[in-house]
Amino acid sequence: MTDRPAAHPAPNPPPLIVAASVAGVQGAVLLLLAILEFASVTSGRLAFGLSTAGFFAAYGVVLIAAAVALWRRQGWSRGPVLITQLIFLGIAWNLREHVLLAIVLAVVALVVLAGMVSKDTMAVLDGTADADADDPDQPSASSD
């Protein structure tokens, strides 16, 4: 064992933390919807109910995995999280006659989108944030 402290990467930027956290909650809500759909399956709508519950469950698991991957700074997680927010914006538009629900869905999606396209989040997911901090000869991104 060595007494040297392990090198720790810089902490995740707040926009990334918010985006990953909200995406994880969205995934959990999808899992809850899957459970509720499965519980309401009747013999008259067996195939539809089971396929819908399966879709919600699979999507929820993928979204939670993407949220964890975001937290761990894995770039592949951008796609599932971004497309989910675009879908949520479309759902909000389709539910615009239910104003409160539409506003909540749209605001949540816009918060995650803003966190995902933040300069700090993009730098962390691209792997350039730690490199810039470690290399004093590199001009910082804020000097533009």
Topology summary:
Layout: H1 14-39, H2 46-71, H3 78-94, H4 99-117, H5 119-126, H6 128-134
Describe the 3D structure:
The protein has 144 residues and is mainly α. 72% of the residues lie in helices and 0% in strands. α1 crosses α4 and α3 packs antiparallel against α4 (99-117). The mean pLDDT is 88.
In terms of per-residue confidence, which ranges show pLDDT below 50 for 5 or more consecutive residues?
A: none
Question: How many distinct beta strands?
Answer: 0
Distance between the termini: 44 Å
**Number of helices, counting only DSSP H or I runs of 4 residues or more:** 6
> What is the overall shape?
globular
H/E element sequence: HHHHHH
Counting helices, strands and paired strands, the structural category is mainly alpha
